[in-house]
C-alpha cells in the first residue's frame, strides 16, 4: 500500500475471483445500468495489459451485450510500450489494443502511431471502421450529428442551470443520506439547541472549504464550511485548528485548542483525511488518523465538560478503535467528503433536524490489515499463510466497523412477512411443461448444481417481504440491507452476500413494508476454482438485521 505504481502493477487474479468478485460490478453496470463507455486501466492482468486483454474486452460485448465504446486511461497505450515494454514498437501497441477491442485512446499515442501501423500492415482499414462504429453509434444515440439542437437536450443547459436551489438541495440530501453514525453512547446525540449556548469545533478541517470535496471535484458553489454551518445553529461557535493542517505533524496548536474546548458546552472534533493524504497517485500507508490527530482527540476528550463528538472525513476506512472504546468520546460520525453543503448538513444531524440512517459501504479494517499486501488480489482467506481474505464476504479477521454498520437516533426492528420455504430448481417457468432436472455434483458431502445447467434462472426469482417497525420516538429513514448465506459454513462460499437494499422512511411508532427480490442464480451462487458458478443445494438463509428466514433449495 503506497509502494506500488499502477503503471507497473501486475494483478494476478484467479478464475474464481474473476467470476464472482471482479467482473460482477462491471456486468451490472452494463446490463442493468446500460453503461455506454468503459475504461481500460494501466495495470496488467495476469501478464497482459488491461487494454490488450481481448478476452475481457470482447467478453463484455459478446456475453454481456455491451453496446458502446472502450477508452483507455490517459496514456495507457503509450505505457504498454514505453514503460511496460510489453510490445516491441509503437505500431505493435496500436495493433494489439485495437484488435483486443479498445476504441478510443486518451492521449496522443494513436495519433502518432496509427498511420504507420497501417502502412506496416499491423492493422487494416476494417479495424479502424470497427472502432468508428462503436464510437459513432454512441454519438448518434446522443444526437450529436443532428442538424439542429432540438434533440440535443444538453445543449439547452447553461449558466442558469448551475448552482440552482434544487441542485444545492440535492447535494444536501446526498450528505444527509450518506453520513453514517458509527457510535452514539447513551443516545448522546441528538443535541438539544436549548441546552447548547456555546459550541467549539476543533480540527484543521473545521474552517476549510477545500476538505469538503474529494479528488476530481468540480468548482463548488459557495461552499459552507463546518464552522459556518454550525454558526447558523449556535451563534457562539468558536474554533481552533489544534493542528496546522490535516497532516498534523506538530502539537504547537494543541494549547489553543484545549483552552477553546474548556470554555464550550459541547465540543465537536473534526478529524480524518483530505487530498494531502489520499488522492490519485497518493495512497495511504496507514489506516490510523494522520500524524498527531489521535493525540489531539484524546487530549480534547480529557478536558471538556461533557463527552465529545468525533466527526471523521475521508474517502475510506480509518482505524478509530481508540474512539470506539473511549467513553469520553460519546459519538462518532463518518461524513466522507461531504461537498459544498456539508457544513450545513452536519449541524442538522447533530441537533436532530435529520435522523441519520446511512450504512458503511466498506469494511473498516484495523491498522493490522496494512500488513496484508495490497498486491494480493485473492479474495478468499487462506489460513495456511495467514491471509485473512478481503471484504465482508470473505474477510475472517477483526473489524473496527463492519460493512453495512450504521446507527440511528431511533430503533428499527424487522419481521419477515413473506418468503419461500422451498425452491425447486427443476420447476418449469411454463405451466404444464416439465423441465429437465439439473445434474448435481457431490463434493465433501455437499451437493452442488452448476448455474449454467439450470433451465431458467428467471423462474427462480422470488420476493422477500419485510416489515420495518420504528420503535423509537423520532421519524427516520434508513437503508434496509438484505443478505443471504448458506446455512452451513462452506469453504469457498461467501460468509454472507448482499442481495439488495431499499431506503425506507418510517414514522415513529409505525411500520413500513418493503419488498426485495432475490435471484438464487445471482445472489446465492459462488464460483468454483475453475471459475464456474455453482449453487449449493440444501438450507439457505436470508437475513435482515438480526432476523433470519430459512428455506431449502432442491434439485
Mind explaining what this structure looks like?
The chain has 555 residues and is of the alpha/beta class. The protein folds into three domains: 6-141, TIM Barrel (Alpha-Beta Barrel), CATH 3.20.20.300; 166-371, Glycoside hydrolase family 3 C-terminal domain (Rossmann fold); 410-554, Immunoglobulins (Immunoglobulin-like). It has helices at residues 15-22, 24-31, 54-62, 76-82, 90-100, 109-119, 125-141, 165-178, 226-233, 254-263, 293-301, 321-325, 342-350, 391-394, 520-523; strands at 10-11, 37-40, 44-45, 48-49, 69-72, 180-184, 199-202, 237-240, 266-272, 308-313, 329-336, 412-418, 422-424, 440-443, 446-450, 462-470, 476-486, 497-506, 511-518, 525-527, 533-536, 538-544, 547-554. The strands form six sheets. Strands 6-11-10-9-7-8 form a six-stranded mixed beta sheet, with helices on both faces. A five-stranded mixed beta sheet has the order 13-23-22-17-18, with no helix packed on it. Strand 22 and strand 23 form a beta hairpin. Mean pLDDT is 94; it is low at 428-436. GO terms for molecular function: alpha-L-arabinofuranosidase activity; xylan 1,4-beta-xylosidase activity. It holds the Pfam family Glyco_hydro_3. One of its GO terms (biological process) is xylan catabolic process. It comes from Triticum turgidum subsp. durum (Durum wheat). InterPro entries: BXL, Fn3-like, GH, Glyco_hydro_3_C, Glyco_hydro_3_C_sf, Glyco_hydro_3_N, Glyco_hydro_3_N_sf, Ig-like_fold.
